[in-house]
Write a structure and sequence with these properties.
The protein is α/β, with parallel strands linked by helices and about 525 residues long. The strands form 2 sheets. Strands 1, 2, 3, 4, 5, 6 and 13 form a 7-stranded mixed β-sheet that branches. Helix 3 packs antiparallel against helix 4 and helix 6 runs antiparallel to helix 8. The C terminus is likely disordered.
C-alpha cells in the first residue's frame, strides 16, 4: 500500500505538469495510466487511499495559487477536491473487474469531473483534463465533443495505455485482457482523434465588429483591487478617453464596443457620484457602448457582480450578473459557523455575500448579441452554452484577477479561455484589470495580448457568427451519457458479483433433511 500510494502521488504530480505554467500536455495519458495501475486489484477501501494520494498530490500542486486568497482557503478547497479522486480510486478498482473496464473507467473519470465542477457550493472545475490541451492536436476535437468529451477521450487513452502496460487483468480471460487487444484499441482511438485534425471545424464569420479591450492596471503592488479602488476606475476612464483622442486624430478607427474588466468599479456606479461621472465621461468621449464591470448593491448584506452595457446617450442598459461567485472569496457559506474560528479570520474581509446570476440570454450591445462571462464563469459550461444557444455571436470575458496577478492562476485561466474559443467557434475578447487581457480567434490563436501590470488598450476587428458547434448543441448531454456509462459499468460488475455471492452462500449451506413417506413393506417371500 505504501509503494502504491507513493506511485499514485507521483502520477498526481505528473498530471499537474500538464497545466500552466509548465503545460506539457502529453503527460496526461501517462498520469491517468498511473492512476489506473496503482488502483488495480485492490479492495475498494485500499483503492480509496491510493486515489486520495493521487488527488492530494495533483490538486494541492495544481491550485497552489489559491494561497493568494489564504492558506486556509487553499487547504480547504484542495482537500475537498482530493476526496473526488479518492472516490474515483474505489470506482477504478471496482470497474477493472469487468472486461470492458477501459470504457467504464473513462466514463467514471469524466463523471467525476462533471460532478465536482458543479458540486458542492457551485463546484470547482479547475483541473479538468481538457483544460490542458489547447496547444495540442487533440484540441481540434473540442468543437465536436466539447471539454467534457475531450476529457473522456483522454481518460480512455490513459486507460488503454494502462491496459497495454499492465497486460491481462486478474480474473479476465487473456483474449479479453491481452496486450494485443490493447494495442489495437489504442491505434483505433488515435485514428479517431486524427479525424478532427484532418477535418477541423471551420468558423465562418457572418459579420464583423471592432472591439477595444481596456486593461487599466491596478495601483500599488497590483494584487489588491481595493488598495486604491477609485484609481482603478480612473485608470479605465483615462485609457478610454485616450483611445477616444486617438480616434479623433485618426490614429485608430473608432471601435464598436469598449470592454472594461470585472471590478473596474468596486462601488455601485448608481449610488456613487464620482464613479458614475467617470463612466459618463469615458462613454461620452468614445461615443460607443462600454461594457462596464461593476459591483452593484444587491441588498443590505449582498452584492451583485455585473457587466453593464453603458450607452453614451441612454446610460445603463442590459446587464449580465456573474453566474458562479467564488465560495469563501465572494461569499461565505455557513458564515456564522466559519467565522467562529480564528483560522478563518481572513474570511471576515468578505463583508457582503455575492448573489448568483441566472441570465440565459446574451447581452444586446448595439444590436449585436454578446455572451458575457465574468472571471471564473469561463471555466463552467452552463452559462456560456445557454447564451450561445440563445443566439450570442461573440464571447467576452471580464475578469479582475488582481488577487492572483503574482501566481500561475492567470495563465491557467487564459488557457481555459482559449479552449472556450475553440469549443464554441467564437471570437473571444478578454479584459482584465492588470492581466492577462487578449483577443482570441476561434482556432485558439491569440491575436493580441497585453503585458501584465501595464495599462493597455487592445483593439481588433473580430468575426460574428451564430452557428453552433456540435459541442454546444450537445450541451450537458455529453456529461449525462458519461454518467450513464459509468453507472452501467458498475451495475455490470456488481450484479454478477452479488449473484455469485448468493450462489456461494447457497452451496455452503447444509441441505435440510426431509423425511420421506414410509414405503409399504415387501411381502415376505415375494418375488
Amino acid at each position: 500500500m505504501l509503494r502504491r500510494s507513493l506511485l499514485a502521488a507521483c502520477a498526481g504530480l505528473l498530471l499537474s505538469v500538464a497545466f500552466e505554467p509548465v503545460a506539457v500536455a502529453w503527460v496526461i495519458p501517462v498520469a491517468v495510466a498511473g492512476f489506473v495501475l496503482t488502483t488495480r486489484g485492490l479492495t475498494l477501501r485500499r483503492a480509496f487511499v491510493v486515489g486520495l494520494a493521487f488527488g492530494a498530490a495533483f490538486y494541492f500542486a495544481h491550485i497552489f495559487w489559491m494561497r493568494a486568497v489564504g492558506v486556509s482557503a487553499w487547504l480547504a478547497l484542495a482537500t475537498l477536491e482530493t476526496l473526488f479522486y479518492a472516490a474515483l480510486g474505489s470506482a477504478s478498482a471496482l470497474l477493472q473487474r469487468h472486461r470492458l473496464w477501459p470504457l467504464w473507467f473513462a466514463a467514471a473519470w469524466t463523471t467525476m469531473e462533471v460532478v465536482r465542477s458543479g458540486w458542492p457550493l457551485g463546484g470547482m472545475p479547475w483541473g479538468r483534463l481538457a483544460f490542458a490541451v489547447v496547444d495540442t492536436p487533440i484540441a481540434d476535437a473540442l468543437p465536436y465533443v466539447g471539454a467534457v468529451g475531450v476529457s473522456f477521450l483522454l481518460a480512455l487513452l490513459g486507460a488503454l495505455l494502462a491496459w497495454l502496460i499492465g497486460g491481462p487483468v486478474a480474473g479476465l480471460k487473456p483474449a479479453q485482457g491481452g496486450r494485443k487487444a490493447a494495442a489495437v484499441c489504442l491505434v483505433a482511438l488515435c485514428g479517431l482523434l486524427a479525424v478532427p485534425v484532418l477535418a477541423p471545424w471551420q468558423a465562418h464569420a457572418e459579420g464583423h465588429l471592432t472591439v477595444a479591450a481596456v486593461q487599466g492596471d491596478v495601483p500599488g503592488n497590483g494584487d489588491d483591487i481595493l488598495y486604491d479602488y477609485r484609481q482603478v476606475t480612473q485608470n479605465q476612464v483615462d485609457a478610454t478617453v485616450d483611445l477616444a483622442r486617438r480616434v479623433d486624430t485618426g490614429e485608430v478607427d473608432r471601435p464598436d464596443l469598449v470592454l472594461w474588466p470585472e471590478n473596474s468599479t468596486a462601488v455601485d456606479p448608481f449610488n456613487d457620484g464620482e464613479t458614475n461621472s467617470g463612466i459618463w465621461a469615458a462613454s461620452s468621449a468614445i461615443q460607443v457602448p462600454i461594457l462596464v464591470g461593476a459591483i452593484v448593491d444587491g441588498g443590505e448584506n449582498q452584492v451583485l457582480n455585473q457587466g453593464i452595457v453603458w450607452d453614451p446617450e441612454t446610460g445603463a442598459g442590459d446587464r449580465y450578473t456573474k453566474w458562479h461567485p467564488v465560495p469563501f472569496g465572494e461569499y461565505i457559506p455557513l458564515r456564522s459557523v466559519f467565522l467562529k474560528y480564528n483560522f478563518f479570520d481572513r474570511l471576515r474581509e468578505v463583508g457582503r455575500d455575492m448573489l448568483s446570476g441566472t441570465r440565459r440570454e446574451p447581452l444586446d450591445i448595439g444590436g449585436v448579441p454578446v455572451a458575457d462571462a465574468i472571471c471564473f464563469d469561463i471555466a463552467y459550461d452552463d452559462g456560456l452554452q445557454a447564451q450561445l444557444r440563445n443566439g450570442a455571436e461573440l464571447l467576452v470575458v471580464q475578469s479582475s484577477q488582481a488577487t492572483f496577478i503574482h501566481t500561475d492562476q492567470i495563465d491557467q485561466q487564459f488557457a481555459i479561455t482559449r479552449l472556450r474559443a475553440m469549443e464554441t467557434g467564437r471570437w473571444v475578447a478578454v479584459a482584465t484589470t492588470n492581466g492577462v487581457s487578449g483577443i482570441i480567434a476561434p482556432d485558439g490563436q491569440v491575436m493580441e495580448t497585453a503585458d501584465i501590470r501595464t495599462q493597455a488598450v487592445l483593439q481588433q476587428q473580430v468575426g460574428l457568427t451564430d452557428a453552433l458547434t456540435p459541442a454546444v448543441r450537445l450541451g450537458p448531454w455529453t456529461g449525462r451519457i458519461a454518467a450513464g456509462l459509468a453507472i452501467l459499468g458498475m451495475l455490470l460488475v456488481l450484479l454478477p458479483y452479488r449473484r455469485r455471492q448468493q450462489d456461494a452462500a447457497s452451496a455452503a449451506a447444509p441441505e435440510e433433511f426431509e423425511p420421506s413417506e414410509p414405503s409399504e413393506p415387501s411381502p415376505v417371500g415375494g418375488p
